[in-house]
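ugh ok so i messed up the first submission bc i forgot one of the chains. this is the corrected input, ALL of the components this time, i swear. 513 residues overall. if the numbers dont match what u have on ur side tell me asap before i send this to the collaborators (the ones from the other lab, u know who)
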Amino acid sequence: MNEFLTAMVGLVLVLLALGLVRVLRGPGDADRMMAAQLIGTCGIAALLLIGVIGGTSAAIDVALVLALLATFAAAAFAECARRATQPETLPETERP
Amino acid sequence: MTIVPALDLFVAGIVLIVAVWTVAARDTMSAVVGFVAYGLLLALVWVRLGAPDVALTEAAIGSGLAGALLIGAATRLRAGEPSVSTERLGGAGRVLAMTLSAVVAAAVAVVLLSLPDPAPSLASEAAANAGVTSLGNPVTNVLMAFRAMDTMLEKVVLLLALLGVWSMARDHAWGGRPRSCRRADPEGPLVLLARVLPPVGVVLGISVLWVSADHPGGAFQGATILAAMWLLVLMAGLGDVPAAGGRRLRLVLVAGPAVFLTVGLGGLALGAAFLSYPPAWAKPVILVIEFAMVLTVATTLGLLVAGPPERSAER
Amino acid sequence: MSVVLDLITIAAVSAGVVFFLAGTVGLLRFPDTLTRLHALTKADNLGLGLVVLGLLPQVGSLRDGLKMICVWLLVLLAGATVSQLVAQAARRDGPGSDGAAP
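and heres the new structure output, hopefully the right one now
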């Protein structure tokens, strides 16, 4: 069984590497954020598989933290994009 | 089973490619996304190297908090980016930069190659004395007991970093709040996330701290998760950052180092040395320090990402 | 019994990886941002869900199993919100976004 799961880790890692191509090519920031999200999910899947293969529950803990913070970068990105398009919401900051 | 080393090599190769690309990318935002992916891959590498404590830190800091911080910075820098990217270094400057880089690379290579083999290590002594604190996790043992001085000073360094960020404030905003996040659409996804995720995150953050006595985890990792949850609430505009001049905030900020220092001085007065814990009470004392530290570190990290004050305290 | 469980694992994990493959291919091959976003959520929701489902019979303890289900639920939440947030951002600064901002 472990041989099969290890092969699956390999496949997921190859897919993760393919997802990186989209991060490199873009073209937009939104595409890059999306690719980062897919890479995150692939990484989580790889961690879960590794955790089960090795019987290490610490890998599952790491996956849990990654899953919890998976939204964090994207939320910051969306917030900054919103802020950048609506500068009038910052009355005091642009004062010289 | 030759597939496992092959996979490890594969991951190492991807890490290298992403690292080079992150440095070489022209566009700041692409470099930031590359850095987030890099943090995630590093977490994977640390798990494979059998260092889950480090992997947890990397997962929380590298692909979470640092990503948000850098995205904020990239958005701010974007306005000035076209003018910067058209600037070119002159011939002499290029030669100088290349020489400097080559010297640094050569120095690092020389140092690495001249390391003694096997490298000096205190690991065996740390493992041999693991019983004295009744903690099961050797990493927590080292951080909180054997090298407690370093850990305490790290927290002071974090505070100094926050002071550095605060000192970027303009005069009229000194002691005030960072720039506001406009309240997001109350029906929107960000607000939903900021309402649903923090309860889960707070439980996970505290549990990462709590299990660190015997399992991978720790105060810093837990604090990073808590800080991320706080920042999420701030980003959605559901709360406001406390004013930097507020007394309560400042008390929280010094609580961790203060408790640590008190325990250290108590060790000096009652026990053998600075930061020596009474053997029977080692575990509870360490837990008290860790809980005070979590509060301080989470607040400090949150404020570091939130940035320097830009609104005066009256508003 | 363990043969049946192993078969479930092999079937579910393979299916999950197929969905990951579909998501990745979509992310690489689809022509524009919003269609790529559509491909992404398949990998998040179904791919990881099936992998978790397949791994459940193999975990050593109940705690690890529960943690895995939590991972999947968190990724579901993340996938749903992130695709909304990214779509809003893409619509705002993508081509043909005139007046499309909410």
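quick check: Chain C touches chain B through eight residues (CB under 8 Å). that seems consistent at least. Chain C has three helices and no strands.
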